[in-house]
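User: quick one, sequence for these tokens?
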């Protein structure tokens, strides 16, 4: 499974932007013709032609490649410019300002929660100032109408906000479910293959520590499976805290893998030794039962061209040696 498929936010934004380019680009072409020939709003008309061409370009580009954040920013900026400028030059009865109601939805869908809040609030203030400054104030002669327009805008804004917050929350939950071990919160094998690729982009040397708890069966046998589970949670937390940088994955029942970059093999071995020693000297307190464990670690350095499987297999061989030579050892 490709981890990119779990990034539902990116997929959503790609879809929204692409089809928004198609719809708004077409509409803008129609409006530009209208503004240039009937309304005589030349600046707005030419702005709309440029916007249509930009939409066409972005629509084609997005068909071939992934979404870039700047594309969403430019789209929101351009469409805001057209709506604000149109509101400024046209009289309120032309109704250009009504397009403002669609913008909070686009801000939230394309840019997310915080830009959504800031841009929606800014647009509301800006459009209110422009409309109230206008003379004659025609459709705004009654308090009721202004109130209704403002409340409609705020309702659309609030719904967009609630939708985006819950969408982002579910997307994060889904990603965690797919990538994290539910018991310990460490990464699983899928996230390990992802971060392996990520770390390979780094110039420094990549090391893998394959780490197994010694005689863990005895913990389960003596204290029960529940206590065993809690010990695994504590060990995962200890590994995360002790490993200054890098990633911790649970790759088997009582087996963890740690990926990290170090300047050289000596630094990597010193870090592995530190892990081993900290686990050995830590008393894990589970509901009043004090448990002391040791770990065995196999260490390998990444060699160019290796696959993750080859990398893990080599570390596994080192771990096997550490176990065979008495456990509570670092080998590599
Ligand atoms: N509590 C708990 N135990 C687990 C989990 N997954 C695996 N285990 C236990 O881990 C133990 C692994 O036992 P062994 O493979 O014999 O290894 P060991 O006792 O650690 O001995 P060595 O690895 O040879 O040092 C078994 O008792 C499994 O039931 C889990 O998620 N929770």
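Assistant:
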């Amino acid at each position: 499974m490709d981890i990119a498929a779990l990034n539902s936010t990116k997929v959503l934004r790609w879809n929204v932007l692409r089809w928004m380019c198609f719809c708004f680009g077409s509409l803008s072409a129609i409006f530009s013709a209208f503004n240039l020939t009937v309304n005589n709003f030349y600046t707005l008309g030419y702005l709309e032609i440029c916007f249509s061409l930009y939409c066409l370009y972005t629509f084609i580009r997005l068909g071939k490649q992934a979404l870039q954040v700047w594309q969403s920013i430019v789209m929101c900026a351009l469409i805001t410019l057209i709506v604000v400028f149109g509101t400024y030059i046209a009289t309120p009865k032309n109704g250009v300002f009504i397009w403002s109601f669609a913008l909070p939805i686009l801000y939230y869908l394309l840019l997310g929660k915080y830009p959504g809040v800031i841009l929606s609030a800014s647009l509301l203030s800006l459009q209110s100032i422009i409309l109230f400054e206008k003379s004659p104030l025609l459709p705004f002669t009654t308090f009721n109408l202004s109130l209704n327009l403002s409340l409609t805008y705020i309702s659309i804004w609030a719904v967009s906000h609630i939708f985006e917050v819950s969408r982002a929350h579910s997307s994060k939950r889904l990603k965690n479910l797919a990538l994290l071990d539910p018991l310990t919160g460490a990464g699983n094998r899928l996230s390990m293959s992802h971060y392996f690729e990520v770390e390979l982009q780094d110039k420094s040397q990549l090391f893998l520590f394959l780490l197994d708890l010694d005689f863990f069966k005895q913990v389960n046998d003596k204290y029960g499976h529940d206590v065993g589970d809690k010990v695994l949670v504590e060990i995962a937390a200890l590994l995360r805290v002790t490993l200054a940088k890098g990633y911790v994955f649970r790759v088997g029942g009582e087996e963890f893998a740690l990926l990290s970059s170090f300047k050289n093999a000596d630094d990597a071995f010193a870090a592995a030794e530190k892990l081993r020693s900290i686990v050995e000297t830590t008393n894990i307190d589970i509901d009043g039962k004090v448990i002391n464990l040791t770990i065995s670690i196999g260490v390998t350095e990444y060699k160019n061209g290796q696959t993750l499987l080859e990398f893990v297999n080599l570390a596994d061989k080192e771990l096997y040696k550490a176990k065979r030579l008495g456990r509570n050892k670092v080998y590599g």
